[in-house]
Amino acid sequence: MPVLSTAAGLHEILALLTAQLRPDANLTAEIGFLTEVFSEHSFNSLMKIHQKLQQFVRQGPSPALHSAAALAEDALFSAHDTVARKAFDPVLPPMPDDLEIEEEEESMKIVRLVKNKEPLGATIRMDEQTGAVVVARIMRGGAADRSGLVHVGDELREVNEIAVEHKTPEEISQILAQCQGSITLKLIPGIKEEDQLNEGKKAFHKAPRRRLRAKGHMRALFDYDPSEDKAIPCKEAGLPFRKGDILQVVSQDDLVWWQAKRVGDANLRAGLIPSKKFQEKRLAYRQKNADLEQEESSKRSSYDRSCEKEDCDCDGYLNGLHIAGLRRSFRLSRKDRQVNEKEEKQTEQKDVEYLTYEEVVTYRRRPNDVHRLVVLVGSIGAKVNEMRQRIIADNPNRYNVAVPSTTRQKKVHERQGLEYHFVSKLSFEADIQKNRFVEHGEYKDNLYGISVDSIRTIMLKKKICLLDANPQTIKNLRTAEFKPYVILVQPFLQEPKANTTAETSSNENVKELEESKYQEMVQSAAYIEQQYSHLIDKVLVKGDLQTACSELKTILDSIERDSFWVPANWVRS
């Protein structure tokens, strides 16, 4: 049946109805039916309404008044002005008429603030010489800062008509914390109003001539809880954060305590955090004390016993814990790779790095940029290589590995530049002196290593280089050229089940081996997280191979697509 348009009139409807009559039908019955329908009064009324509506649509509606558009516009702006003039802020009660101000306190100012559940946003201290309680700092974004009426150096005299003379800052902080709603502060300005204006003008004129200290975003490299910090001037004003949080530093005026906000936090008020320099001094002091204690402890203790494993060149047991040996093989398998904890600690002692903050910016790879280097760090038992090989096999046009170099003799089935770059020992050692290796080691009197050029070769082919590396190698790779994204792969650890049945000597040996292996994997994963978590972007817990590879592909896709916080020097350099 043909479809009627919305503009179809009565004649079109009737013509369509007539066309639907079947030639072989009983015409007398059909005509009788139509006559009965058209004779209905209600049907005729509907047809008239339909015709009127179609005629109205064809003519087009017109406004009742010529000034209707102007009237609508005036009504819209009138509603806008009404909303704009309305005060949505809390209304402060009027100042009392009987407020007493002594004659010698003509410079006294009365400030009334509205404080809800948030802190007032100001810290106080006691002047050592005069004993007066003065405003030490104003927290950015807090109630005091938003008012613009309270300044650093103002002397506090009263809080809601409660005199604060002879009270300690802690007692005053308790009074302020208990106050809700309207708070009236009686203050003596630390600087006269005209002096404040003059200082502001001087700062304005000097700003173009000097470079202001930059404020930006920092990645926290340690956990911080202000409630446990004995040095912070006001615990309530502190900003707690966790390792890895991104902090927006809004003020570095104080050399000891910065003001910052957590990115993504809805709280407008900034909080106090220890400055980078101050935190480094504290860590250096703690490290010095720890070294002294360790030196005293080392005089009283020694290795418990040597390792009982056959063909093991590790450092044995220290205080009952197994110390893994140096990773000596750079072949594609991790079978013989282990970490030498002793050598790592010696290296760390030579180059002490105090983990405080790292300046970061957002970065998203552009289509014409080279791919970021993807570093896979695996703890013992993770078997990173099988994941890497599966990813490459599924998409060899997108992923590849850096070909390692070695001084050993080439085997018959091996090809130069495919399994290894076979070089002489003299050439290998010369490249070590020129820092051309990101990591290298020795295995059975042969040298193995991953060169910088082998990574660059993959990147120049516009492929993503998947590098299986030791955690201590990450520092050598953190450059603007590579922009590494580091993934820590850990095995899914499940503690061996205890067997309550009678066990043979052979079963007992198997059980001891499983427990030893389990403890070794646990210690390896814990050690890497403890020492290198600040360099790791993602942790992947590997269960079955297929699921782990699927998760890794998702991560690799996000690296190409999403924005990430990266060290600022990667983008600025």
Structure write-up:
This protein is α+β, with helices and mostly antiparallel strands and 573 residues long. Among the domains are: 91 residues, Pdz3 Domain (Roll); 247 residues, P-loop containing nucleotide triphosphate hydrolases (Rossmann fold, 3-Layer(aba) Sandwich). 36% of the residues lie in helices and 19% in strands. It contains 16 helices and 23 strands. Strands 10-9-8-7-13-23 form a six-stranded antiparallel β-sheet. A five-stranded parallel β-sheet has the order 15-20-14-21-22, with helices on both faces. A hairpin with a 2-residue loop joins strand 4 and strand 5. Helix 10 packs across helix 15. The radius of gyration is 39 Å and the shape is flat. It starts with 9 loop residues before the first helix and ends with a helix. The relative contact order is 0.07. About 8% of the residues have low confidence.
